Every structure is written in C-alpha cells, then in structure tokens.
Amino acid sequence: MTDQNKHLPENQIRIFDTTLRDGEQSAGAALTNSEKMQIARQLAKLNVDVIEAGFPFSSPGDFESVRQIAAEIEGPIIAGLARTMPEDINAAWDAVKVAKKPRIHTFIATSDIHIQAKFKKTREEILNVATDMVTLAASKCSDVEFSAEDAGRTEPFFLYKVVESVIDAGATTVNIPDTVGYTIPDEFGRLIKGIMTNVPNVDQAIISVHCHNDLGLAVANSIAGIQNGARQVECTINGIGERAGNAAMEELVMALKVRPQYFEGLYTNITTEHFYETSQMVSDLTSLTVQHNKAVVGSNAFAHESGIHQDGFLKGRDTYEIMRPEWIGLSGAKLPLGPRSGRAAVRARLTRIGIEPTNEQMIAIFEAFKKLADEKKRIEDDDLKMLYKKAL
Ligand code: KIV
Ligand code: ZN
User: Fold this and answer.
1) Are 73 and 44 in contact (CB under 8 A)?
2) Hey, whose CA ends up nearest to atom 7 of ligand 1?
C-alpha cells in the first residue's frame, strides 16, 4: 500500500470525486477547462480525498485540464483515468505527475458480457492485460488504482482472481464498479464481503466502490459496500454521471453523518457546510438542474409545506427535520406559505417580518390569507403586510 493510503485512519471513508470525469460524461454536461478548474478548487475546499480530474488520453483538451488541475490543486490526490493500454497510461502519468499526490487510475471490463462483446478475448487474456498494465502503471507512480469495469456482473471467483493479481502487480486501490447500476444493496454488499474474505492479499489495498444509479440504488449500494469493508467511495456532486448518474456524494456523506450508529465509527473528512454552494456551482456550470425534491441539496429538501408539518416544526424542529440545513451551508429551513399552511406558520412569518397582530387581527388576517392563498398559491411577505394593513 502507498504512503497515501497507509497514513489514513482505518475508519476513514475516502471520498473519491469523479464529477470532472464520470460526471462530465453526463449527456449535455461538457465543461470548459476553466470551469473544470473552478470545480476542482471547490472540491478541494470540500476536502475530498481524491479528485478524478479527467481522462488525459481522450483529448488534448482533457490532457491539459488534468495537467493544470494537477499543477495547482494541493490537498487531494489527483487521479487521471486510463484504459489498460500503454499509450493511455503514459498520457495519464504525463498529466498527473506534477501533482503533489498523483494517481493513475486504469480500468478494464471483467464481466463475460463485456469481455465477449467488446474485446472478443478470454478471461485469461483480460487477467493478463490487467496485470501487465497495472505493473506498467506501478513502475511510474506509487499510487495506482485498478477498476474492474462491470464488476457487478462479473463472475465472483474470476473477480477475486483479478483483484488478487492486480494487488500483486502493485495496485494500491482496487475499485469494484456497478457500472450499469444493476445490483441490489444486499447483493452488492455480499460481493464486497466476498472480496474481503476470498482475496488473500486484500489487506494490501483499499477496496473502493463505484455505483451507478440506473435503478436509483447507487447510494444504497455504496453504503452496502462500505458496511462490508470498502473504504473508498466514488461519487459525484448532485449524482451526475453516465445515464442515470453516479452515487451522489452529498447523500452518502450525510447518511454517514446523520446515522452514525449504523457505521461503527466510519466517517468522512468532508466539510459538509460547502455542499450547497458546491451543488449550485456544479448545476450552474454543467446546466444540469437539480430536481426540487433532490435529497440534501434540492430546493425543497428543507421546505415544510403542509400546515401540520409547519405547526410541528415550529413546536420542535426534530419533528420533521432529520438534519440541520446549516450542516450543508443553508441559513435555515423554509416554511413556504400556501393554501395548506396553518395559523402557526402565518403567525411565525408575521413575527419574522416584525408584525405582532392581536388575536382579533389574527383571525381576520388568517381568513383573508386562506382566500388569497387559494388564488395565488404562494403568499409572500408583501402579501402579509397588505393583509395586516387591511385587518387594522
Ligand atoms: O462505471 C465504471 O465502471 C467506470 C469505470 C471507468 C471506473 O466509470
Ligand atoms: Zn462510472
């Protein structure tokens, strides 16, 4: 294991951000190099452990962007992606070698579906290519990650053999992707457990997970992975990525923070207070809007709409709030006023804007509020001021 892996505490979950690589593979999300640099600076502020900056061999522009990020960003490891081909590995190394902490990330598919359809090779040939190319990468860089693409659909005993062999060849992190988002949490957890128990040299590397969201299970599968021994999670901001995307970093990290009793001391080093601004930045730069009800960073994630919820929330936040909006960098929860709002929420908003009506005035205001809310759907502070004036 490299020093970079060795020095991290046993219980720390490494956050490997791939917003700039897998995230940028989202249809329509292309970023310019200066936009990628802006995001990389923000990821460093968030304190991610690894930034996968791009795929250097894929284009001269990508090479230059990875090189610039490697030259400027300090703190996180900077990884460049490479297929298991010498020209890719050379390009990845040339792009990341200026980094304080460089990593070469090389991958090849290991499932029979991919081996037969894409490569028309045998398992044995794939094993040899993987091993040889990890050996090449390790001759250049002391931090090498190997990914067994489509591991989720790979025959487990073949996968164990691949993992063992690439670790022997010098891989310091071995990533187990559910490339097509096909697995179910229990199944994916068992796959990781199988690796932890059947690969004799598994203690010589960090096992990583990389889950896609085709069935909406990317975060749940990643959690099953870490509960069964994985210590690195690959994820993206807002869950962007190929097709339905990758595991959303903000969801995974907040799950660990909010429900620590299920994680036996496991933690991340993420500064969660930067999540909201990071989410907004990635959304603005990629033009991929965040759905309103998106967990953690959606605009409704801390908005309580119904009268019953607003009343409960005003009596005690814990009734309907499982995490504080301040933890992700918001100033507080929202209680939007609309047709379903109750008297308590209307009075609380009046107080917030400096109006303290008598009980009699409050009856008149609330009656007029209900009529107006039916027409307008959303009542703003100016509407309340107008209703108060009428009730005087
Ligand atoms: O989904 C996948 O398998 C990948 C690999 C390149 C890690 O993105
Ligand atoms: Zn992926």
Assistant:
1) yes
2) 147
